[in-house]
């Protein structure tokens, strides 16, 4: 009781003194300036960048993922807020908004009288500006200390911003329950509309919520919200903003809530997009180069700083435009499930439009859940014979201008006790390069890499930007897929796009660009194509890859097309099966295997990896 009485006395004594400083602008200007300086030093109300929602779009501009970091808010400017909404909040929350300096003396006096009589805090007197101050800078503690801080912050807000700016901030800040902050997010959440598309009745319904979001939660307490909406409509009629006929019509208008849940589609692809966004920001803002040249402790600090920066960007409200083709993504999901009914056998798929260098579909595994281990870009596996076009035959033909009819031995071969064998241990005498590629013989591949030279061949391979190819990999077993870590299906598919781009390689991207919510460009890739092989080499390799699917190891992937080519890959002990192939417009790669490598020879005859590829790519034609 004593503390409460002290609070009352403090309020009663403080307010007249504070008001005196505010009002005596003509006779005591020096005191006012001194007081203002005091406030400026201690109360900072600079423009705050409110957290907003971000969105990932597919190639058609449709939302495929909402990203709340941490709030669902879509900030809109003053002119985009309907006038009817502005009037509703001013009349219902603060009728003297345009006259007071941030606090309303009459309302404060009335609230003090009520609260003293009730021996507690029964009635507030917060203006719109005070509510904004509480939302931005303070908390919701019910105490007189907080109330005094609220008044001071509100006064500073009024000195710093115009009434228009304050009302704009307020309507974008208030909470509309069910995760929606601000009128635009509320319109989207409850009616799947923009604020400018709301009817006056819908605007009044939404304006009923923030007064007490739990009490007026329209999902749980629709009738309460409707009743308050009608009281707000009556208030608008009383103030002659609307006519009696308009009020009757608004009350009678059906309020059909069309609750919009959080959009979170295509988790495989979206997970990768968020990873690619980090890479995009890292390159654009210099983190990549700094991390590359830093020591381990500095790298950790810079990585943490980069992670914080990514979160800042997402919280600022951005639109991430991607190349995702939903139809192809769905087809790929279906194909992986259809052809991999086997327990524990997983798969990954990458589909690239090699004409635009865009990733249009990406599958991270069967029944993939968001942020699971994504096998398409996180699963490094041995590539088997799928590496031969990139490390063996492409470099050799480009170096020597060899014909596909050139002969090479497919018999036993040993170098320094390294003695690779062909599949099944067979020997085939002298074969053409085309036959060696088509039948995927191993000993010719190792012979050719030895002839080309490791330095030359790996210089070409490094242009494909495989992240985990090391100096230790520069050895002959790599000719048939023996790498320290291996490659992802995204990397392999990306590398094979060279056969559709006349010998030029450029990283394929999921993200086209990143803009703010008003469409202003923030980030865009600045990739350059690298010339790896000459057109003659590409022409010969395309011919050989076509033979693989028409008469070689990739026949189960074949379908009628103006051009089709590809390469199979099988690793030691049948731990991995690959098929990477292309048409005139699309390059796609499929990997299957167990997460913990184990023998899956029992699916070899069925060739599910080739069947998955065929179903996806044939449907794109």
Can you walk me through this structure?
It is elongated, with a radius of gyration of 34 Å. It is built from 23 helices and 16 strands. With 621 residues, the protein is an alpha+beta fold. Strand 1 and strand 2 (63-67) form a beta hairpin. Among the domains are: 2-19 and 69-252, Penicillin binding protein transpeptidase fold (Orthogonal Bundle); 385-486, no CATH class. The strands form 5 sheets. A 5-stranded mixed beta sheet has the order 2-1-5-11-12, covered by helices on one side. The protein has a 5-stranded antiparallel beta sheet with strand order 7-6-16-15-14, sandwiched between helices. Strands 3-4 form a two-stranded parallel ribbon.
The DSSP helix count reads 23
CATH superfamily of the domain at 2-19 and 69-252: Biosynthetic peptidoglycan transglycosylase-like
Q: What's the CATH class label of the domain at 2-19 and 69-252?
A: Mainly Alpha
Mean pLDDT across all amino acids: 90
CATH topology description of the domain at 2-19 and 69-252:
Penicillin binding protein transpeptidase fold
Tertiary shape:
elongated
Number of strands: 16
Largest sheet: 5 strands, mixed
In angstroms, what is the radius of gyration? Answer: 34 Å
Poorly predicted sequence stretches spanning 5 or more consecutive residues: 1-13, 20-29, 140-144
Percent helix: 40-55%
